[in-house]
Design goal:
This protein is mainly α. The protein is about 85% helix and about 0% strand. Helix 1 packs antiparallel against helix 10. The termini are far apart.
């Protein structure tokens, strides 16, 4: 297997599994718009990394985490609905990122790779970073999944159980922001929500419990990513959009199968 395909498959499987795991909680909380807002905002972090000569993935992660912390503070101070705040933050942050990239010599063509992914061109350095971050995020989710489920269903009841809701919620949103940034290299800013939401939604169609949903979602995401990367390679298709389309087709197929059964 060619080295770039090895890197693509390793990175793709890791990131898709992490996003699918987070996607379960995103669906339960009905906060899918949060993923879009963080993804679009992270373009500013990418642009800042390029301008400062730093790793764009790291600066995008830092910026995304900052956004995940700022949103609750703005909600508390302004008392505006969360969807209103995200609707303001999303276009402004993305526009700032596009402007910064447009004034950076030689990086204008790279805008498409940030918007729609470029997993086939990922470096081993980025893969090692993905592995380290993915292990940390998966460990956090595994150790705290019961607490996160309690918070997702009823934050007040979770507080009565002795769970430190605010602190755990802050860590969860920071982890989600980092996972979304990892997904940008796989499917891009525009399409990252496909891997965050669709595999988890597909798993929910057949899952009989939260435990089976946790099992199904990463498997669906990994299989979708592997199939899409192989298909995009042999048919010379863009990998990010191929993954998004394949995810959608699998969801439709699962929905039809469920109704047939």
């Amino acid at each position: 297997m060619l080295p770039f395909m090895q890197r693509a498959l390793i990175g793709g499987i890791l990131v898709s599994c992490v996003l699918a795991y987070f996607g379960i909680f995103v669906i339960l909380r009905r906060s899918s718009f949060f993923g879009d807002a963080v993804a679009h905002s992270s373009l500013t972090g990418v642009a800042l990394g390029i301008l400062l000569g730093l790793n764009p993935l790291l600066t995008a992660m830092l910026y995304a985490v900052m956004v995940s912390f700022v949103i609750p503070l703005l909600r508390k101070e302004t008392r505006l609905p969360i969807d209103t705040l995200l609707g303001i933050l999303l276009p402004v942050s993305m526009a700032v990122g596009v402007i910064l990239l447009s004034i950076t010599p030689g990086y204008q063509p790279e805008l498409m790779s940030f918007l729609f992914g470029s997993i086939l061109g990922i470096s081993w350095g980025s893969i090692y970073l993905m592995i380290a971050v993915s292990v940390v995020l998966l460990t956090f989710l595994h150790l705290n999944q019961k607490k996160l489920f309690n918070i997702s269903f009823d934050p007040k009841y979770a507080t009565l159980l002795g769970i430190r809701v605010s602190r755990l919620d802050m860590i969860y949103h920071a982890g989600l922001a980092i996972a979304i940034v990892l997904g940008i290299q796989l499917v891009g800013i525009v399409l990252v929500n496909a891997l965050l939401i669709i595999p988890a939604a597909t798993a929910r169609l057949f899952a009989t419990s939260l435990a089976t949903m946790i099992l199904y979602a990463p498997i669906i995401a990994a299989v979708t990513t592997i199939g899409s990367l192989v298909l995009s390679y042999y048919l010379n298709l863009p990998s990010g959009p191929t993954i998004a389309v394949m995810s959608g087709l699998i969801f439709v197929g699962a929905l039809l199968l469920k109704h047939k059964v």
